[in-house]
Design brief:
single chain; mainly beta; three-stranded antiparallel sheet; 3 helices; globular
Length: 187
């Protein structure tokens, strides 16, 4: 397309409309000479199985993002449904986010938060501009075990929990798209 369409979208409307898109909540962490750093992030998604890639989108001016970019290594901690306060703490600017928060280092040293539903250690593989955010692609280096709790969700400006599903219920195709053997069926 050679011509740009006029933009008539105000930020409040954008936030309201896409607040209707339910997301999971993660905390992206790293550690450097200044110690551990991290921020709450709902703009996260698995991207590719082969090679194993993930994508997250930090605000370009974020000091935590600058530290992650400097180390080139990060850990995505997937939050469980009871982690409302943890998400709030890591969603606040300027505070000592790790005060009183127990964690262990990933194989590369990035913080794995105690009680995370699961985690993935990644290396920054590409960074693309995305308006006031950066689009970060990370190559997955290590994966954690998966906990049994439900995920922490964010929908319409509030934290939510997933509805319980029977462990004996059949998996839905949409729940297994990343593992679906014929991904071209969906493209």
């Amino acid at each position: 397309m050679d011509t740009e369409l006029p933009v008539a979208v105000d930020p409040a409307s954008f936030r309201r409309v896409f607040g209707h898109f339910c997301t999971g909540v993660t905390i992206v962490t790293t550690t450097d000479a200044d110690g551990p750093a991290g921020f709450a992030c709902q703009a996260f998604t698995p991207l590719s199985l082969d090679p194993p890639l993930v994508l997250f989108c930090p605000q370009s001016t974020s000091s935590t993002w600058q530290r992650i970019r400097g180390t080139g290594l990060f850990c995505v901690n997937v939050l469980a449904e009871g982690h409302h306060e943890l998400s709030r703490a890591f969603g606040t600017r300027g505070a000592d986010k790790f005060a009183g928060i127990p964690w262990t280092p990933s194989p590369g040293g990035a913080p794995i938060l105690d009680g995370a539903l699961t985690w993935a250690e990644c290396q920054v593989s590409a960074v693309h501009p995305g308006g006031d955010h950066s689009i970060v692609v990370g190559r997955v280096l290590a994966l954690g075990e998966c906990g049994g709790d439900g995920p922490l969700l964010f929908f319409k400006g509030r934290y939510r929990a997933a509805a319980p599903v029977s462990p004996s219920a059949s998996l839905e195709v949409v729940d297994t798209l990343l593992a679906w053997p014929r991904h071209t069926d969906w493209i």
